[in-house]
Amino acid sequence: PRLDPGLATAAESALGKVIAVLPGLVRAAAESLAVFAPTAGIDDATRARLEVLRGAIDERRKLRIDYLALDERRSNGRVLRPLGCVYWSATWTLAAWCEWRLDFRSFRVDRIEAVDVLDERFRDEPGKTLADLLRREASREACT
């Protein structure tokens, strides 16, 4: 699967528990669904980086990254609050609150050159959460 091994195992376990408590006919229908998650297109380095990012998101730990943008500009030592990893078409991205820009930013996971999970934890603050980012994006889409 496209997920890191820990998350894939947890997802399979959760799905098994949900299916187990469904009524007979519904359970049979759910078990007959074909789901295919191709593994092609994600390299080992990106898969490993996703696992590190997911761990930092779960533990609410800040990150320090070195990043190479598509225009080849580098930013080193950028401190982020990781909020979520999103798969867009063929690219994984990290949604984060950037403490340097004081705004939301997204980073292609395959272009993160180095990532350090910091000891510093963060708490949700108004205006800096994943829900805030999603509301902002929904509002932008509504305006177009």
Short key terms for the protein model shown above:
alpha+beta; globular; 144 residues; 4 helices; single chain; 38% helix; five-stranded antiparallel sheet; 33% strand
> Unreliable stretches, pLDDT < 50, 5 or more residues?
34-38
Q: What strand line-up does the widest sheet have?
A: 4-3-2-1-5
Distance, first to last CA: 35 Å
Structural class: alpha+beta
Q: What is the H-and-E element order?
A: HHHEEEEEH
Beta-strand content estimate: 25-35%
Q: What integer value in Å does the Rg equal?
A: 18 Å
Largest sheet: 5 strands, antiparallel
What is the overall silhouette?
globular
Mean pLDDT: 84
Discrete helix count: 4
- DSSP, total strands: 5
List the helices and strands and how they pair.
Blueprint: H1 5-20, H2 24-31, H3 44-59, E1 61-68, E2 74-88, E3 91-98, E4 103-108, E5 112-121, H4 130-143
Antiparallel strand pairs: 1-2, 1-5, 2-3, 3-4
